[in-house]
Every structure is written in C-alpha cells, then in structure tokens.
Amino acid sequence: MLATLMQSLDSTIANVALPHMQGALSASQDEITWVLTSYIVAAAITMPLTSWLAARFGVKHLLAASIIGFTIASGLCGIAQSLPQMVIARLLQGVFGASLIPLSQSTLLDINPPDRQGRAMAVWGMGVMVGPILGPTLGGWLTESLDWRWVFFINLPVGAVALFGACTYLPKNTRKPDQSLDFFGFVALSLALGALQALLDRGEQLDWFNSIEIRIETLIAVIAMAFFVVHTKTAGHCSFFRRELLKDGNFVTGLFFVFVVGAVLYATRALLPPMLQSLMGYNALNAGLVSAPSGIGTLIAMQLVSRLIGRVDVRLLLVTGFTISALALWQMMHYTLVLAESNIIWPGVIQGFGLGLVFVPLSTMTFSTLPGTLRHDGTAIYSLMRSIGSSIGIAVVQTFATRNTQIAHASLAGHLSVFDAVVQNQVDLHSPAAIWLLNEQVTRQAVMTAYLDDFKLMFMVTLLVIPLLALIRPANSGAASATDVHVAME
Q1: How many CA atoms lie within 13 A of 52 on its CB side?
Q2: Same domain, 133 and 220
Q3: What are 453-473's pLDDT values in tens digits?
Q4: Phi/psi at 483 (nearest 5 deg)?
Q5: Is 28 found in the same domain as 124?
Q6: Considering the entire predicted model, what is its pTM?
Q7: Which sequence ranges are marked TM in the entry (predicted)?
Q8: In 10 A of CB 81, how many CB atoms?
Q9: What is the CATH classification number for the domain harbouring 482?
Q10: CB burial class (10 A; 0-12, 13-18, 19+) of residue 346?
C-alpha cells in the first residue's frame, strides 16, 4: 500500500510544481506539459503488460522491481537539469509505476478470503482515492517550503520502506515462465492507448482538431485500436487480451462504473484548484489545503463501508454513494465568486464521502464473480479504465470551461451598452482603465459561469448512471471460490 500511495500521489503531486520547473529547466509552457504527458502515456502503455510480467517473473519479483525502478526514477526526476532529462525520468516513472496499483489490488484480493475482501479493498482504496486528492496539497507545501525537486525526492524514503515490506512479507512467487507474449496485440494496444492519452492530455491546449499533432494522434489511436480488436477476435486464446473477462457481467459493469468514478473524481480535482487560484486569489498551497479535507470524507466512508460489506446489499451502498456524490456536485453548481472556506470544504468532504461509499463496494463487486486465474488481468484493465476515465473527464471539463467562458463572455458583454444609463453612471467611458476593469469583471463572471456549467455536467452524469446499477448482480454460487481466491499466491 505504500507503493500504491507513492504512485497515486505522483499522478497529481507534480502539477502544482510545473511553473517552478518551467523556469529551472528553461522550458516553454507548451514544452513543460510533457512532464505530465510523458508519465501518463508511459503508464497507460505499460499497465496492460502487468499480468504477463507477473506470470513470467512472479508477483513478488515484479513488485520489488517496480518499486526499485520507480524510486530510482523519482530520484532522477529530482536531479534533472534539463527538460529532456526530466521527460526521460518521467517516462521511466510511468513504466515502473504502471504495475504498482494493479499488483497491490490483486495481491490484497489473493491473500484475503472472500469474507475479508471488502476490508482489503477499503485499504487499497485509501491509497488509490486519497493519493490524488492529497497530491496537490503535499506538492504545494513541498514547493513553497523547500523546493520543487522535493515533490520527487519525497518518494525515496517511502520507496525504501515499501521495498523492505514487499521483500519481507509478500508470499512466495509463483511463475509461469512458459507463458508467451502476444507481441502484436501488445504493440497495437500500446499504440492505441499511448496516442489516446497524448491527445486527451494535450488536446485542449492545442485546440483539438485544429492541431496537426492531435489529428495524427487520433488517426494512430483509431487504426491501432481497430487492429487490436480484429486481432483479439481472430487470435483465439493466444491473444494479449483475455476475452474471458468480457464473459463476466459484474466485471464489465464494474469497468463502466470505475470509468465514471475516475472521470468525476479527477475532473473535480482538476477544476477546483484553478478556480480558487484564478478567481478567488488562493495560492497553490491554500487551494490544496481547502481541497484536501475531501480525503477525510473518503477515509471515513471507506472505514464504514468495509464493515457493511456482506451485511448490506452492495447495490444499496452504490446507490447511496452516487446519490451523495450528486448532492455534493449540486452544491458546487451554486458556487459564487464570494465563497467562505467552509462553502468549499464541506461539498468536498461530502463528495469524498460519497465516492468512498462507491469505491469499496464497486471494487469488491467487480471481482466477486471473477475467477482467481483472471485476477491479474482484471486488476490491470480495471486500473487502466479508471486512468482513461480520469483523462477523458479532465479533457472534457477543461475544454468545456474554455469554450463556455467565451460563450458566457459574449452573452454578458452583449447586455452592456454605452447607451445604458447604469453603465454610464458606473463607468467612465472615456477612461481606458475603467473599461479594462469592466471587461475584467465580465471575464470573471464568464469564467465562473463556465465552471458552474462543468459542475452541472458532472452532476447530470452522476445522476444518469444511478439507474444502471440495476445491471449488477449479487455474488452467488458462480462467484470465485475460496480456492480460486488463493490460487495465484499458493
């Protein structure tokens, strides 16, 4: 779990340090975004390979190697003196970090019998859900108090302790060295995922399809995915993707819902800090501090729900969690330019509580009917869908925020006229400074309107998925047996 927390923190901790890195590495605003993009793309490409690597080398060896590689790459990020050095180090971080979260989830499922898997998923969920929430806060504090390089150096002691724990306590390895790798399927899927993540990460900045880069990445993603789908359908049991996963209804349903959770959680995290900093004068540290309490709500919910799993219908917990999350987004829809800190903190705590109620039963339900032999493949795909959901969610809300700001500004400015008596009384129309200030106020209102539209969109999406919870079926005799649960680790 230390390894999981280390990796999930790094998905957001570097964001607030980008302006400081930009000056130190002599990079332009466009170039510095590759510090984030390189990590995301490398992780997306490598994550589906987790199952084959675990079978080939064993879970214990793979987890230890991933921790070592991720920790060393973090140190290389901290000492990077140029942008190419930083991008290469971040690529290595993504490659080695991709396996940490799916391996931790599958290990926790493997070493716990079915009646304790709810609590195991609560432990796992703490690292996965709380890490991205605390990342900006910790990153802001380290950057303001020490130096931006410490957002990477902080991983060194954590990685050392995690490596000691993995080598000391993890069960003995089981390997299948004769398991072959479907190289063509892996390359096709890697190209598709890498191109998709790159276009989602850079699309809003490059104005989407007005950019040649985005058009090329889209073409690569579509063609590579088409090759992968056709190859998977015709390659039989030798294909890179285990088609048996799609035969489990709960697993497929769980993929859809974790995609939605990833989109809503990360999109909210992507909206709040810039809103607080650009409209309300918060610095990076204070914006992180008022956002961080949502993690408290998540921790409380996970501790509560881990004790309710097995006693309460999982679908009831999921409905409650999504409803509470929708309530928090409804509160965010009513934000104004004048907000007390409590008006920011409490909706975040409520949303964190709602998502905490969702995440644990969702993880438990998704794997409740999946055979243990498919668990490593399933956890890798599960983490990948959450990652893709977060990328799509962030891309959508950022694009809508930009475009809706322009629309709202045009609409608001259209109601202002030099012939309006109120405008004439309040603004000196002969003063360029006064007109500039008026435009600034209109812009602030337009930006706030765009943020509210994004919160409304996420509110509607959260409400719309609630009826789809009826697709979930409770675990029954078809669920994985206790023998299946331990098969990967015995």
Answers
A1: 17
A2: no
A3: 999 999 998 888 888 888 777
A4: -65, -45
A5: yes
A6: 0.76
A7: 32-55, 62-81, 87-109, 121-142, 148-171, 183-200, 212-230, 251-272, 284-302, 314-332, 344-367, 455-472
A8: 10
A9: 1.20.1250.20
A10: middle
